[in-house]
């Protein structure tokens, strides 16, 4: 089968070239053959254009979408997603007040500040079960607290009286590769935006905003359909590795051609791309183990609850039997008294 992506990106190399370069270096050859056969094939496929790169791999996402190197890309995506033009001022370290989420199956996490002072946390989750609504609320609260501290410290340095009016919006944006059950129940909707409201119609800005994107549902909804708007084009960019979809994107939305060119230029640096891919495999292994642990814990908890319920049932039945036995003995005594008469 002809490699159609190579027609658009002549810098894409042949399988033979990639193998020859990896075999020429002891270090690269050691890394390459440390992978499973399926992993080696995946690596060769995206390096040679047989398939696209998994854009949501942390290393690739941050390399391609890094606001410090290519600010227009994330600006455009977030503007389309939020529904108003936003401009990223800077990327903020996410290891200060961030609530640690051990084993959350997190792929990527980027916190950015917009020009107006608003903050956004962009999360990419491999498996949605590890990111329930309760955890989203905690992350958002953590982000809002960071916003509060930043504003307070800034105004203190300027010797200006603190005002809550200077605290801006915070956005928790979660992209799910595999969405949780709650989202999968809405099988025709793949973007979910929160809104705050009161039963009286009261209008008040509560600052915290949530946007959930279900890429698995998006893929299903886009089967045998063409991309018809820019936001869906971005989601297709994140969701699909199919050459046909990639070609559709770069022909209908030429801005993606530059992004894919950057991806295939990365693939020319064998040492770098193998290092990036190895890092992703290690993270996926860790996440898989953690997911299995989480699943086992859920099973254990469910079994424990079932045993507790059975124990309560047994206690209840024992009380019933005891009461029936008491009533039976009472009846026997009454019969004995009647016979004595």
Automatic annotation (TrEMBL):
Q: Coiled-coil segments, which residues? A: 293-341
Q: Which Pfam families match?
A: PDDEXK_2
User: From what organism does this protein derive?
Assistant: Eisenbergiella tayi
Name the UniProt key words of this record, in alphabetical order: Coiled coil
- What's the protein name? PD-(D/E)XK nuclease family transposase
User: Does Coiled coil count among this protein's keywords?
Assistant: yes
């Amino acid at each position: 089968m002809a490699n159609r992506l190579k027609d658009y990106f002549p810098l894409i190399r042949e399988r033979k070239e990639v193998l020859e370069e990896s075999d020429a270096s002891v270090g690269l050859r050691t890394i390459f053959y440390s992978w499973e056969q399926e992993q080696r094939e995946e690596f060769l496929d995206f390096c040679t254009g047989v398939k696209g790169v998994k854009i949501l791999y942390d290393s690739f996402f941050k390399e391609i979408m890094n606001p410090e190197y290519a600010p227009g890309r994330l600006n455009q995506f977030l503007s389309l997603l939020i529904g108003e033009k936003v401009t990223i001022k800077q990327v903020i370290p996410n290891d200060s007040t961030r609530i640690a989420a051990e084993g959350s199956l997190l792929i990527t996490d980027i916190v950015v500040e917009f020009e107006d002072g608003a903050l956004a946390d962009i999360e990419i989750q491999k498996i949605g079960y590890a990111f329930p609504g309760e955890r989203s609320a905690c992350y958002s609260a953590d982000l809002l607290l960071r916003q509060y501290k930043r504003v307070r410290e800034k105004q203190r340095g300027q010797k200006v009286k603190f005002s809550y009016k200077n605290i801006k919006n915070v956005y928790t944006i979660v992209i799910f590769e595999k969405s949780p059950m709650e989202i999968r129940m809405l099988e025709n909707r793949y973007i979910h935006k929160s809104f705050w409201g009161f039963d009286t119609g009261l209008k008040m800005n509560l600052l915290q905003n949530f946007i959930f994107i279900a890429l698995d549902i998006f893929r299903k909804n886009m089967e045998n359909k063409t991309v018809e708007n820019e936001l869906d084009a971005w989601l297709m960019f994140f969701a699909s590795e199919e050459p046909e979809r990639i070609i559709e994107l770069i022909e209908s939305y030429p801005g993606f051609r530059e992004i894919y060119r950057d991806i295939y230029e990365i693939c020319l640096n064998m040492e770098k791309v193998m290092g990036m891919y190895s890092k992703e495999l290690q993270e996926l292994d860790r996440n898989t183990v953690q997911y299995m642990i989480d699943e086992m814990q859920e099973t254990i908890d469910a079994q424990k609850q079932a045993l507790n319920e059975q124990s309560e049932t047994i206690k209840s039945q024992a009380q019933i039997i005891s009461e029936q036995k008491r009533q039976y003995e009472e009846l026997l005594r009454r019969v004995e008294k009647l016979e004595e008469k």
